[in-house]
Amino acid sequence: MAGDSSSRPISLTRKMHQKPLKRANSSMQLPKDSVVISIKKLIKEVDLVPSKRCIYKVPTSMRNVNKEAYTPKVVSIGPLHRGGEGLKAMEQQKLRYLDSFLTWACLEMEEIVKRLRKREKAVRNCYSEKVKLSSDKFIEMMLLDGCFILELLLRISDENYIGGEDLVFSRPHIYDELWLDLILLENQLPLFVLLDIYNLIPCRRPERLPSVGDLISRFVFNIMDIDLPDGPLQDHVMDMHLPNSNSFCNALHLVDCLRMCYLANTPSSGPKGAKMRSFSPSATRLHEAGVKFKKVESKFLLDLKFDKKLGVLKIPILHIQDSTEVILRNQIAFEQCHHSVRPIIEYIVLIDSIIDTPADVNLLMEKGVIQSIVDSGESICQLFNNLGKQVILGEEPLFFHLCADLRGHCATHWNRWKAILKSQYFHTPWAVISFSAGIILLILTVIQTVCSIID
Fold it and tell me: Whole-model pTM?
């Protein structure tokens, strides 16, 4: 019946004008339990909205493959490795750099500390784990580490800036380890801390200063071995399709700045929702199917292209150095912890599939795609096989179409037959002449046989 309330649909949503349900009053509450009290305390302490996190402890599964690749050797930046073994000597250098920076910037320490205190909570929220330092110790860390990085970037940017003997630059082995420490995921300070400190300077110095973005550009481009000619930095950056200074200023930290460079000029991603179930055949299999490898003089590692018509796979030159594994491992860790789209991880897995055995490495070295003075084919093969361990692919695969084209090329029988003919019968001019003569002789023999039958 229409008037029967039992026949009305039940609404599962609360009406806008209804008051929210109240919890039972105190007289009706159950006695407080020690477990409840403990859990409520933990809830208050935990960060329930971890969206600001950008500096992470490397997952144990990845760290166990190579612990040293994630651990600073000379300097600690941020709280995660503060006070670590072998890092205390650089704490004295941080004080020297702080004094030098304050003098150059015409700043009072009190001004910086006042600015940093306003940022303490925001900085703490950037770390994936709770930082147990007291407020004063945390501000001290921000001051020393932030000014140390800025002073170092200024000295890298301008050789004339360095006055007197410098512990870092007068000992090349220290600098070589130090700049690697600055691009470790666990050894970071949020970039906005550097901006907050540096932005206090212009009101004190009349001349035009390089921006933080300019300073970072010089540092990152040095790591990538990008030679910038003399002249305005931004002109060269635009010509080379590199991130500009403003882009770096919007980055999360130095690891993110380096990632921005690697992702510049990348191809478009694959179809949304697509899954990479298999990557590429190995280099030797591609070679047997007639694929030609062509080295590309590009600093953008992800700029791989396959020309289906010509059967040419263009790969940016991969320079294997002592720092290669450390750089790539920390980029992989950052992507896996922070990003859902993971092109660098996908690149590593792709190269790992192309490099299956030392023979694949030797083939790519012969073609100039891989260049290494020290490492052997076996060690390079092992490097990429290990880099591909414990990684998880992301969304929107970048090399979906490229891998599909390579697999399709290898699956075509005619491509393999052409490659066999070329490698066995057309690899030298004399082989071509010999093969041609054999064919002509065969044709003449057939003609002679037919003529004999007719007669």
Answer: 0.81
